[in-house]
Design brief:
36% helix, 21 helices, 17 strands, two-stranded parallel sheet, flat, disordered N terminus, 15% strand
Length: 555
């Protein structure tokens, strides 16, 4: 059998020579070739083309393994260089390595299965030595190499994870970023791992300090996760172009703020401080800057003192107790922030903080309200929210973003029952119990919810669930109960307001056993989808077929 015949016909079953003659075997092959005559007529020299495609396929397989290793040379998290084809990216990072000399194999060797490990040319460089593959990739790589290294936009972000054992290699990977970013600012993220936290025996990372001091004017955003005191004590330079600073999870970050103020960082407009205990230090930094986006632990006084009037985004996840050295906050004055469009507040256990904020802060331009979840024992501050706080933006079409809601309906009810013109509800990190509680609150026919005669969030158009961890561990009873509660809510809202539609979107959620577990749920879901209800369920970014009416017609 010739190679052309085998490629065109596929792997035929071997003829039984004990019961058939050689002529019968050839006749069988002729019939198989005739069945594929249309395909053969449209392809010239199928053996040559298919062999090249197969060779390239194996090259890509090999390079996919190498890709993860070579990507550490460029740590651009958001750079489009990461979407380049693998075979191009690897050769770019290798600087278009010169071709490798090799002995041309005999033709008989190519007739063997190239996927067999026993092939004489099997190995990581097997198909990279083929002239067709080598020359093509080398030419393309030289072109892309010149483009990538001459395009500063490819080098504007970098992220590294430092540890005492991998310090030098990781820091060395930052040098190409600053060298090739041109005049553009760099977004640098550094995560520290396994470093000692106390300065009396914490050696400063001299290489990193020198690199940051040398390129201080090149930094646009600096993100430090758990930085140790060795770094924070050594940074002492002007950050004239720094626009964003993000410091989190560090008990020793105090020295870094000695160089971050209105004088040394005049362009700083985004500040995020998480899990930092020194409140006086935070306040000294905040009061000297004209910020536009703030996400800090100490936040009430920013609003009550009228600081940062140009704020556009304000997030607080854990308000802290007032500090004795802070300015007096007993004076209650109405503060208006006309530019804040995104506002988030985690109710504090210090009830006075909640009252001061909700009674004295005005947000007329709000369009996104973040509501971090609360523990059940913090329900009382939430239920005591002043209605005037929500009424000031009741006419705005807003997005309500609920994060980590608890299953306690009273906590969610305190927000849902307000006069909010919410058109989109986004729920992140939600359990099945919390989801069921949300369906009950949105269901005008649920008799277990207080004030069941009202429809919470009557103008709601879309509900989006994002990231539900631990979903696969839920029992079938839990998932079925949540699914039935959702279907009850859909039917009752549709019956109460037929002209209004509600779209439900599950993103990054595995729904295979969630909505249609059990005949009752599947039947009700089929009626809704078949009736034209807009339901979107995405699994790994692909719309689930159960959302299409044709799916249920074939079931």
């Amino acid at each position: 059998m010739s190679p052309n015949a085998r490629l065109c016909s596929g792997p035929p079953s071997p003829p039984d020579l004990t019961t058939s003659s050689q002529e019968e075997a050839e006749h069988t092959m002729t019939v198989e070739l005739n069945l594929k005559s249309d395909f053969d007529a449209s392809v010239e020299e199928p053996s040559s083309h298919r062999e090249k495609v197969k060779q390239l396929d194996l090259v890509i397989r090999r390079l996919n393994i190498e890709r993860s290793k070579k990507l550490s040379m460029i740590n651009a998290e958001n750079s489009i260089i990461r979407i380049l084809p693998t075979e191009i990216l690897i050769h770019i990072l290798l600087c278009a390595a010169p071709p490798i000399d090799f002995d041309k194999p005999k033709l008989v060797d190519w007739d063997k299965d190239p996927y067999e490990t026993g092939h004489p040319f099997h190995g990581p460089n097997k198909y990279a030595r083929i002239p067709f593959v080598r020359d093509t990739l080398a030419a393309v790589s030289r072109l892309w190499h010149s483009i990538v290294y001459s395009t500063p936009e490819f080098w504007t972000s970098a992220a590294i994870k430092l540890s005492p054992t991998k310090m030098q290699a990781r820091i060395s990977s930052l040098h190409p970023v600053f060298q090739n970013s041109g005049a553009l600012g760099v977004d640098l993220k550094i995560k520290f791992k396994d470093f000692p936290r106390y300065h009396h025996y914490d050696p400063p990372p001299h290489q990193l300090v020198l690199l940051l001091e040398k390129n201080a004017t090149r930094l646009r955003v600096l993100r430090l996760e758990d930085p140790h005191s060795g770094l924070c004590k050594q940074i002492d330079n002007r950050f004239c172009n720094l626009e964003g600073l993000d410091v989190s999870w560090s008990p020793s970050a105090r020295p870094i703020f000695a160089s971050v103020n209105a004088s040394n960082a005049p362009s700083l407009c985004r500040l995020s401080l998480n899990a930092i205990d020194d409140m006086v230090l935070q306040w000294s930094v905040i009061t000297s800057l004209d910020l536009k986006e703030v996400s800090v632990d100490l936040c009430a006084l920013i609003l009550l003192e009228g600081r940062c009037p140009h704020l556009t985004k304000y997030i607080c996840r854990s308000p802290l107790q007032p500090h004795q050295h802070l300015p007096d906050s007993s004076l209650q004055l109405k503060r208006t922030f006309p530019f804040i469009k995104e506002f988030g507040w985690h109710a504090s256990e210090f009830i006075s903080w909640n009252e001061l904020i909700f009674e004295n802060v005005e947000l007329p331009a709000l369009d996104t309200l973040y509501w971090p979840g609360s523990e059940p024992d913090q329900s009382s501050p939430l239920c005591a929210i002043s209605a005037s706080f929500f009424s000031q933006f009741s006419s705005n079409r807003i997005t309500l973003y609920v994060e980590r809601p608890t299953s306690t309906e009273e906590i969610l009810c305190s927000v849902f029952s307000q006069k909010l013109n919410a058109v989109t509800l986004i729920v992140e990190d939600c359990s099945q119990e919390s989801m069921k509680a949300i369906w009950h609150l949105l269901d005008p026919g649920c008799y277990t919810v207080p004030q069941n005669y009202k429809m919470f969030l009557p103008n709601l158009r879309e509900v989006l669930f994002v990231y539900m961890p631990g979903y696969s561990r839920c029992t079938s009873t839990t998932t079925t109960g949540s699914a039935n509660a959702m279907l009850d809510m859909i039917v009752n809202r549709r019956n109460g307001a037929p002209e209004k539609r509600l779209r439900i979107n599950f993103n990054r959620v595995n729904p295979r056993e969630f909505l249609w577990h059990g005949d009752n749920v599947a039947e009700r879901l089929s009626d809704l989808v078949g009736g034209g209800f807009e339901l979107e369920i995405y699994e790994t970014g692909v719309l689930h077929p159960a959302c299409c009416p044709s799916y249920w017609e074939s079931v």
